[in-house]
Each structure stands twice: as structure tokens, then as C-alpha cells.
Amino acid sequence: MPAAHRPSQRVAALEATLDLLRAGGNLSLEAAARAAGMSKPGLMYHFATKEALVAALVDHLVDGYERDFISLLPAQPTQGTEPEGLSASERIAAYVRWSLTYAHDAADLVILCDPKLRVPMAARWADRFRGWVEVPAEIAAADRARLYAVRLMADGCWFADASGVLPVPLEDRPGLLALALDLLEGEGS
Description:
It is a single chain. By secondary structure, the chain is mainly α. The chain has two domains: about 1-50, Orthogonal Bundle (Arc Repressor Mutant, subunit A), CATH 1.10.10; about 60-185, Tetracycline Repressor, domain 2 (Orthogonal Bundle), CATH 1.10.357.10. The protein is built from eight helices and no strands. Helix 1 packs across helix 4 (about 50-70) and helix 4 crosses helix 5 (about 90-100). The longest helix is centred in the C-terminal third of the chain and has 23 residues, at about 140-165. The model has no long low-confidence stretch (mean pLDDT about 90).
């Protein structure tokens, strides 16, 4: 199989492109190819358009996040990384633990890297995250409010880290995490 066709080159190109974004580079097919040490046609073998590249970046990031979420569940599920079968509290607790304990950077904001792609990439991101952070409409209003409050705490911490705008200091994160988890435990009371 020719070198350009190996799946490892696809993953390496995604990682190199994320490193480009982390370094503050502008995203284009040319820049991504250069960062990956490939020709533009070589990159385009894997990602025919910039939209295909950004969609693959979103999926690549979220795939990793889902593995992280699973590792943060108190009991490991027996099947894959799908959140089905978990309570909303379990799913959101994993998300808040991830938001407050993992390192986040500018590559997390890949959905915002091109104004022309913002809407379809935000939709893709939402589709991928929905199973983890969606608050069920059928639960009591007070429980929904608790879940939303914790989810928004996690969203805010993640975004502050990823954007570099006023992130929560490391020494304050354990207290914030404890507060968020206490709020989740208040569910149903």
C-alpha cells in the first residue's frame, strides 16, 4: 500500500494540524499539509476539502474526549464509549471532571477556526457531545436546573482554558469540582 494511503498518515496529519492550531497558526489545506510534512495532494487524499479536514478534526478530538469521559466514570461501562444506559448525572459528572482536571488548549476550539464552517462544525460538535451533556426534558425542573448549572460550570471552565481567557486557577479547581459534584448529588432532593 502506498505511504499516502496508510491510516497512520491520516491520524498523523490530524495531530499535526491540531499542533498548528495550538501554535496559533491559521488553518488551510496548504498549512495543514506543511505541518504534516505532506504535499497538499497527499493531504487531500485523506481530506478532500477544508470542511472535510475540520470535520475530521472535530471527530478526532471528540473521540479522545469520549475515551476520557469513560475513564472518569465511577464504574466502567461494558460496551464502547456510548453514554446510553448512564444517568444524566453520571454523564455530566464525567464531563465536569474532565473539564476541571484535563488540560485544554486552542485546538479544542477547532469548530471556530473558520467563520464559514462555524455553523456546520458547531452542529457536528453538538451532535457528538449531546449524548454526554444533554439534560433530559422529562425530569423535574429543579433537577434540570442542577444539571444545567453543573454543565455550564464545566462548559465555562473548558472554554476559559481553551481560549486562554481568565481560566480557573489550578488551586481553585478541586473546590469547584467538589461544588459541582455536590450540586449533582442534590438531585432528586
